[in-house]
Structures are given as structure tokens and as C-alpha cells.
User: Which sequence fits this backbone?
């Protein structure tokens, strides 16, 4: 089955390929499908929920390509910060530049907000919502995954992306920045959502 996965994030693309391609699905991303990035895409992630943002992206790219489309929206929720950064995770610090520069600014903002906080105020979870459209005018289906952990006082590891070096996974006992890719995919929010999607898709056709 050929699926358009509506993300331009290199980190997300790597994770999607690792989970979906071994199951026999052909994966393409917007650039590969000939969809150039436009300013209109920024307006697809202004909702207050992961599922709405993911649905907006799925509908937009399905219309542009006519392909079966899966879109992701995901983020980090820190309980003592009222669930922030949440749906604003990618743009929380308001930084621009390369993906690495934006990640660095967001991590610095998270550390600033939690400076001096005891461990019980550092509890957090990652959440991911995938929305799948079987056709551009179809009814969207959603799949969610989450995982829990603790935000550390300093980063550990150079793998992953986003807040991964600060997120100490309850399941693994290491940060997602330290975890081997296959271990992260097994327990991460995106890995769990992708496996739920796989169960729905069934064998490739």
C-alpha cells in the first residue's frame, strides 16, 4: 500500500520509515510526492488539539495528492506546566533556524521553566495522534499513542530529536536521546500510534 505521510520533519520521517516500511508499505513524503512547501502549511497547525491539527494536515495533503494520507501531530506535555508545551511543542520558544537550532531553543526554554523543580514536578508524557484518510473526501480515522517519563535537569544522549535528550523514559530507564532506535520505536508515543495504524491497515495490498 502506498501511503503519503504528511510530515516534512526529518526525525519523524526516519521513525515512520522504520515502523511502516518493514511491514511492506510504500511510504512517500510531501517532497517525494511533488508537493512543495508553501506558507499555507503554517496555518494547518493552529488548532488547540493534536487531533485537529493532524486532521487539517491529512485533509490538506490528501487533496493536494489524491493519495492515501496519514498525518501526525505530537508533542510533550509537562504536568506541572499545565500540559505545556503541548500542541505548541515545535514552536514553543519562538525560535527560527535549522531544526537543531529550534530544538536547542525549545529545550533551553523547558529547562528554564523547570529550573529548581523537584522530580515530582518534572513528570511528563509524550503524545502522538495520527489521522488517516483512505481518500480525500473520506471520513478521518485517528490513532493515538503516549508514553510517560521525567524531564531531566540536563540533556543525555545525541539520538532522537526534539525534547528526546531530556525525556527519561519510564519504559526504558534511559532518555530517548540515549535509546537505540528500535527500542524507542517499541515504546514511544509515535511508535505506539504507528503500530495501532498498522493494525488497522492490515497486510499491504
Assistant:
Amino acid at each position: 500500500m502506498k501511503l503519503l505521510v504528511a510530515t516534512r520533519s526529518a526525525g519523524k520521517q526516519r521513525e515512520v520509515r522504520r515502523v511502516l516500511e518493514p511491514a511492506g508499505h510504500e511510504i512517500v513524503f510531501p517532497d517525494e510526492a511533488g508537493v512543495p512547501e508553501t506558507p499555507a502549511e503554517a496555518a494547518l497547525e493552529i488548532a488547540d488539539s493534536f487531533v485537529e491539527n493532524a486532521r487539517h494536515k491529512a485533509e490538506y495533503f490528501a487533496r493536494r495528492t489524491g493519495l492515501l494520507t496519514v498525518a501526525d501531530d505530537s508533542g510533550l506535555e509537562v504536568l506541572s506546566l499545565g500540559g505545556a508545551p503541548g500542541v505548541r511543542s515545535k514552536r514553543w520558544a519562538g525560535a527560527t533556524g535549522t531544526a537543531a537550532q529550534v530544538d536547542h531553543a525549545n529545550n533551553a526554554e523547558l529547562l528554564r521553566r523547570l529550573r529548581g523543580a523537584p522530580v515530582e514536578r518534572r513528570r511528563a508524557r509524550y503524545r502522538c495522534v495520527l489521522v488517516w484518510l483512505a481518500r480525500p473526501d473520506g471520513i478521518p480515522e485517528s490513532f493515538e499513542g503516549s508514553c510517560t517519563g521525567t524531564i531531566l535537569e540536563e540533556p543525555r544522549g545525541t539520538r532522537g530529536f526534539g525534547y528526546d535528550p531530556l525525556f527519561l523514559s519510564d519504559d526504558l530507564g534511559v532518555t530517548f536521546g540515549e535509546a537505540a532506535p528500535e527500542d524507542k520505536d517499541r515504546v514511544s508515543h509515535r511508535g505506539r500510534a504507528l503500530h495501532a495504524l498498522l493494525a488497522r491497515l492490515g497486510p499491504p495490498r
Observations:
- The first strand starts at residue 2 and ends at 5.
